[in-house]
Amino acid sequence: MTTQLRRLSMLEMNVRSLVPAGVAVAVTSPHAAPEPLWPAEASAISNAVPARQMEFAAGRMAARRALLALGRAPSAIPMDRDRSPVWPSAVVGSITHDDKSCIAIVAERDRFRALGVDVEPALPLEADVFSEICRPEELAWLRQLPFQSRGIVARRFFSAKEAIYKCQYTVSRTLIDFKALSVVFDKQGRFDARLMRDVEGFAQGSIFRGLTSNSGEQIISLCHIAEGVEFGSEFPNSVIG
């Protein structure tokens, strides 16, 4: 097994250990030769630059492998007008990528309303972008941390909010910005995020829960909404670890 395949295999095992039962996972490389796109997919990406086409194809390959792991037949996953994946009607899913890997997670729609996954490089964010991502209360928490830790924790905020955004968008079809979510982490990387505005399907004060995990050179964030779960407004007293 090559170093790259070993790294992808370890990443896939790590993500599998983080998702709840009933969620299938697959990981691919955006640099490996991808499987051919299905016609409904290829038409959406035909004018993109080659690097974007490779990335898109790797994401669709991961998605089809995740569908197989779920026990579903592979199928086309076109891109909607808003650029989100169009999953088979009985399935929910999420795709993410960075320059090292593409991750897809899928589940049966009768068990989960929505999924969200994000992968980011485990590198500190520059201090001048903190205020674009973080709300005042989050910035206050960052200032309590040692200076050398703030950038990587800010990256965790960014990744968690990206995963939550994808999760809520599946239900709401509403664009929200980073300031629409107030996130706190516990020492194990779990997070609670309060929605600070009403969106379709979720009232202001709704709490999204998920987790972030460092996987070598990457940060993985995951969020899911189980079918039948009612959103509450209790906001636990958590701390950044």
From TrEMBL:
It catalyses: apo-[aryl-carrier protein] + CoA = holo-[aryl-carrier protein] + adenosine 3',5'-bisphosphate + H(+); apo-[peptidyl-carrier protein] + CoA = holo-[peptidyl-carrier protein] + adenosine 3',5'-bisphosphate + H(+). InterPro entries: 4-PPantetheinyl_Trfase_dom (IPR008278), 4-PPantetheinyl_Trfase_dom_sf (IPR037143), 4PPT_N (IPR041354), Enbac_synth_compD-like (IPR003542). One of its GO terms (cellular component) is enterobactin synthetase complex. Its cofactor is Mg(2+). It comes from the Bacteria. Pathway: Siderophore biosynthesis; enterobactin biosynthesis. Coiled coil: none annotated. Keywords: Enterobactin biosynthesis, Magnesium, Metal-binding, Transferase. Residues 41-107 form the 4'-phosphopantetheinyl transferase N-terminal domain. Residues 115-200 form the 4'-phosphopantetheinyl transferase domain. Mg(2+) binds at residues 118, 120. One of its GO terms (biological process) is enterobactin biosynthetic process. It holds the Pfam family 4PPT_N. GO terms for molecular function: holo-[acyl-carrier-protein] synthase activity; magnesium ion binding. EntB, EntD, EntE, and EntF form a multienzyme complex called enterobactin synthase. This is Enterobactin synthase component D. It comes from Cognatishimia maritima.
